[in-house]
Amino acid sequence: MHEGVIVNRLSFPNGDLLLRLVSPEGTLQTVARKVHRPGGRGARLSLFHHVRYQSYHRPASDLPTLTQVELLFRLEGLSAPGRYLCASFLGELAYALSSPESAEGIWPVFTSGLRGIATQDEPRIPLLWAAWRVIAAAGLAPRLESRCGHPGEMLELNGGLACASCATASSVYLGMAGVQSLVDILTRPGQEAVQTLVAAPIDRLMRALLRHSQVHVGGLRSAALLEQVRF
Ligand SMILES: [Zn+2]
Q1: pTM score, two decimals?
Q2: Which are the contacts of 157, defined by CB distance < 8 A and separation ≥ 6?
Q3: pLDDT digit string (tens) for 146-169?
Q4: Which of 121, 145, 167, 228 has the largest CB neighbor count within 10 A?
């Protein structure tokens, strides 16, 4: 049996589900046939459910089919709009970046980020921490030394820091405090980094996260919505 978290769910008229999962081994896109789904608590297979599963890929078919699935864990609290979008973005990001090589490093950050998003007052704090750490686990973190030698204030979209005068036009303003937060997120232990973020410029850090992931990961559907929602 394997374990994973459902990050995308599409239902077909016949009751089958197309699911995307992030797991400690990578990602899985699979079909859950209605006839095979067990009744009871796990039967709905909702977004962000943490499940244990077995799948079978018949050689001639496009996608593997779930042959067994059971609900391990369900996070309460992710249905509030802001939390839901934060969790969706983190799920999309983890799905895009979990390769067989990076998945083992992404998994613990991803799952603990989801727990934080479900429970903390400001869900963008655990999102910022987890999303940047997922990006780092995939080898796509920005360089933390200022490129120009002056104190860094801007995140350049090629993945580095520079001062406001030297930074390229497309850079995102973080300010000294935002840069310090980014350094904390990427270098300090999780609990410690999250505590420092309580006083951090969250809006700027979010903008930098969204731009950086757009350039280095690609367009994620929840990114645009995340920019519009009021926290
Ligand atoms: Zn400079």
Answers
A1: 0.94
A2: 168, 170, 171, 172, 211, 212, 215
A3: 999 999 999 999 999 999 999 999
A4: 167
Distance from residue 176's CA to the centre of ligand 1 (Å) = 13
Residues within 5 Å of ion ligand 1 by Cβ?
A: 148, 150, 163, 166
* Spacing, Cα 212 to ligand 1 middle (Å): 20
Per-residue pLDDT of 78-116, as tens digits, reads 999 999 999 999 999 999 999 999 999 999 999 999 999
pLDDT tens-digit series, residues 108-144: 999 999 999 999 999 999 999 999 999 999 999 999 9
Q: Tell which residue, 127, 119, 143, 150, has the closest CA to residue 210.
A: 127
> Distance from the CA of 166 to the center of ligand 1, in angstroms?
4
How much distance in Å is there from the Cα of 146 to the middle of ligand 1?
Answer: 8
How far is residue 56's CA from residue 28's CA, in Å, rounded to a whole number? 11
Report CA(149)–ligand 1 centroid distance (Å): 6
Residue 26: which region, alpha, beta or left (left: phi > 0; alpha: psi -120 to 50)? left
Q: What is the CATH number of domain 81-228?
A: 1.20.1440.120
CA of 154 to the centre of ligand 1 (A): 10
CB atoms within 10 A of CB 146: 19
User: Can you say how many angstroms the Cα of residue 114 is from the centroid of all Cα atoms in its chain?
Assistant: 8
Fold of the CATH domain 2-73: OB fold (Dihydrolipoamide Acetyltransferase, E2P) (2.40.50)
Say which residue the tokens 């046939």 belong to. 33
Rg of the chain over Cα atoms, rounded to whole angstroms, equals 19
